[in-house]
Specification:
six-stranded antiparallel barrel; single chain; alpha+beta; Elongation Factor Tu (Ef-tu), domain 3; OB fold (Dihydrolipoamide Acetyltransferase, E2P)
Length: about 350
Amino acid sequence: MRNRILFALAVAGLLAGVLSAAIFAVRRTSISPAFIPAANPYEHGVYANGIVESLQDSGENISVYPEVGGTVTEILEHEGSHVARGTPLLRLDDSVQRAVAEQQQAQADAAGAMLEELRAQPRPESLAVATAQVESARANVKTADDQRAKQQAAHDNDPGSVSKMVLDDSINALALARANLAVAERQYKLVKAGAWSYDIRNQEAQYNALQKGAAASRALLAKYTITAPVDGVILSITATVGGYVSAQGTLESYSGGAAPALVMGTGDDYGAVRCYVDEILIAKLHDLESLEATMYLRGSDVQIPLEFVRVQPLVAPKIELSNERTERVDVRVLPVIFRFKKREGIKIYAGQLVDVYIRTP
């Protein structure tokens, strides 16, 4: 019995060996690579990681932040839109600031109306009243003078016919009437002169101050509508209707950090590539103005020649590193900016990582 079992196991092992040999002898077709890795096109060249960005005289892409905080009520453009400078992009809730601006403008209008009133003086009606008062005072003087003359004549003809007290009262009445006439004439001149120059200047100062305050409120109100700072294309919009944005930006949902409300890029025929050259390879870059470089789009066999633009002369931590306080950063790179002409039919997006080779002597 035992011999039979051993014999059966031996036969099974033999069959398994033959089957395994047959299986492993079959040639399997190798899987083609998704893309051919970029090869150095130069006899001598250095490799660098690159990031596509907008072509600008300085900086990277254009981050748009609001100068005031508020809730987004309307988004007027969409990502990918080509906009001109000054085009409204989004609006914030401006109800409170609009009311403040209207109130200050109303105060300025009231001050302006008061200034016009001062400049328009004297009023014809006020001048007519002052004229009537002068004429009335003159008539009173005439009446008082006539009364005094009669009393004086009677006294001169017969001193006993008019008492001394009555004659003195008529003389005093004439003096009082003349004094009232003098007051009426001065009042007439005051009314005719119009507003005092100091009052006009004071009102002008108040009007100008209120006008400037209203202008400042209108300028602040205009900031609740965010407009395009340059001609270009909208790359991303982080703000959402109903969301809150401030001068620090808005909360980015996925990363949990602050992000600009919008990001714009220049819509020129050229794009830029920011290459990060490792610090140990910087010495190989001699004549910067005559640098030649080639960009490869990852996942394709597309290669695009690059033109040198400038060097950012600051060696900084490599962009792939977070540069946190708890992290030791040992890799530092030199940013070198190239530009390339955009080609028809080839989609290249800002923020895209590319492979770059730079020719060296």
